[in-house]
Amino acid sequence: PVSIILVNYNTRDLLLAALERLAPAPAATHWQIIVVDNGSQDGSAQAVADRFPGVALLASAANRGFAAGNNLGLRLAQGDVFILLNTDVIVTGEQLQTLVAYLLSQPDLGAVSPGLRTLDGGPQAFAYGSQPSPFYLAARGLRRLLRLGAMHDWGVASPIEPDWISGACLAVRR
């Protein structure tokens, strides 16, 4: 029902930790996990092949970039829901189950991303946003020059409908 795609470039330890966190989830045993290795030189592909034989591994000879890597994974994906997941996102399989359930419970949604947090627990800036107008960009630049802080409270407590969401952890319908 779900295909999770992780694009990796020389983040072996982060990738292995991400796969370890996904493994215990009950649904994960029926989920397709795809790792696209973008020509890593740190042994990532071999480590995945050795430790996670059930993971589909696409090993590219060169770093084709984040978008091209995800496109390779999407070609192999068989799920009704695709999750694009960065290797540095700390999330469990149970949390991804909740994300998928929310997406499926909202028939009008095509994509959903969770609230992203930094390691210290604060909200991740620029995890979502609106199309920037010239006025917005000028105001943001002026606030930065004057050291007035961010224009937004990134700590969203309930669902919102922004113009764009981060691809760091993104669930979309097929």
Query: Main β-sheet: number of strands, strand sense, barrel status?
Result: 6 strands, mixed
Instruction: Give the ordered list of helices and strands.
Output: EHEHEHEHEEHEE
Outline the low-pLDDT stretches. Answer: none
Q: Could you say which structural class the secondary elements and strand pairing correspond to?
A: alpha/beta
Distance between the termini: 10 Å
- DSSP helix count? 5
Describe the structure.
The protein has five helices and eight strands. It is of the alpha/beta class. It is globular, with a radius of gyration of 18 Å. The termini are close together.
In short:
By secondary structure, this protein is an alpha/beta fold.
Secondary-structure blueprint of this entry?
Blueprint: E1 2-8, H1 12-22, E2 32-38, H2 44-51, E3 56-60, H3 66-76, E4 81-85, H4 93-105, E5 111-112, E6 128-129, H5 134-145, E7 164-165, E8 169-173
Parallel strand pairs: 1-2, 1-4, 2-3
Antiparallel strand pairs: 4-8, 5-8, 6-7
Helix pairs in contact: 1-2
Provide tags for this entry.
alpha/beta; two-stranded antiparallel sheet; single chain; globular; six-stranded mixed sheet
